[in-house]
Amino acid sequence: MKTIAHGPAFMVDEKGYYGRFGGAYIPEILHRNVKQLSDAFAHYVDDRDFNHELDILLSDYVGRPSPLYRAARLSERYGAEIYLKREDLNHTGAHKINNAIGSVLLARRMDKKHIIAETGAGQHGVATATVCALMGMDCTVFMGATDVMRQQPNVQRMQMLGARVVAVESGNKTLKDATNEAIRYWCCHPDSFYVIGSTVGPDPYPRMVAHFQSVISREMKAQLLEHTGREFPDAVVACVGGGSNAAGAFYHFIDNQDVRLIAAEAAGMGVDTDMTAATISVGTEGIIHGARTMVMQTPDGQIVEPYSISAGLDYPGIGPLHAHLADCGREEVVAITDREALDAAMLLTRTEGIIPALESAHALAALERIRFESGQTIVVNLSGRGDKDMHTYLSNLPSDFGR
Fold first, then answer.
1. Which one of 15, 158, 203, 379 is least enclosed by Cβ atoms within 10 Å?
2. Which residue range(s) make up the domain with 275?
3. Global pTM exceeds 0.85
4. Which GO MF term does the entry hold, naming one (predicted)?
5. What CATH number is associated with residue 150?
6. Does 222 lie in the same domain as 83?
7. CA distance 97 to 141
8. Looking at 81, 87, 118, 331, which residue is catalytic?
């Protein structure tokens, strides 16, 4: 079967499969929408005017390139050269704005007027609401009621930006349920444009989101050359829920087998408990939200509710790209518990003066679990800042906090 690639090394065929994972399992009413989106993406992905406008916004509005920062005290602790890719310094505070701008620009060229999105931690919702405010578009964001409660600052930001935030009361009231509701709404309002926040969903979403996030690793290569004299690190570490920040951080390194790709997923209370979101570690092959991938499910195919202290990682699936990379051994997977993530967040805060998002803290915690040779260059994708997680951090501080 013909393989297509919008950038280096993407093993995706013309039907949207990465190996046996991916595809587009969608209801009949959405076939026209998805086909139009696929055709528009194929048309504009290499369009000079589209990419010129995107690049200007990424530079002048988002503030890219985001810095690549050598964390001196972490480097001393781990005996390696630890660099942080500072996506937390982007406008809106995370990597999500990269995809939101690209997707809404595409929607505008398709003459769409109403944008819908799902969100877990709220960063994708904020990013989408921000771009809609910038471009004068209506925006509706679906968010699980549980996440609405624990991510109030982001809910308030979305509302201030003019978005309508719909609190979803079904299921576990988290990211999976927000996605379910967004898809239901899309089926009833097919003229809407659905901006998916991660590398999940039916083709072309996984490859489209990965493409817009690939700016992360493209910048890494140039910045590493400046810092170290070579474009390629020894390893790249990123957290995975659906997998968008990891896809962007890994994108330009997938072909180079000398670069380790390390994905940190959310173990919650542990992979041997019922309170986990470690999809790659405990999931089985199935279909969720329009794609074949690894899914947390019962033997008869019922979705198992995930759990993580991090609102952005408690998703019972994984992007098909990551399912494929893990399946073929190209991507190493580390399951990080809540406690490990909290400890890693406190370590970064106290040693480098940077408060990370809980999602990013999972990637930082992976540094404690993997072996590096002395002096190796390791890049951790710091996918977001921790402002939104302050309530959770304050509720879980160590007993010696403040001493």
1. 15
2. 64-93+214-395
3. yes
4. tryptophan synthase activity
5. 3.40.50.1100
6. yes
7. 15
8. 118
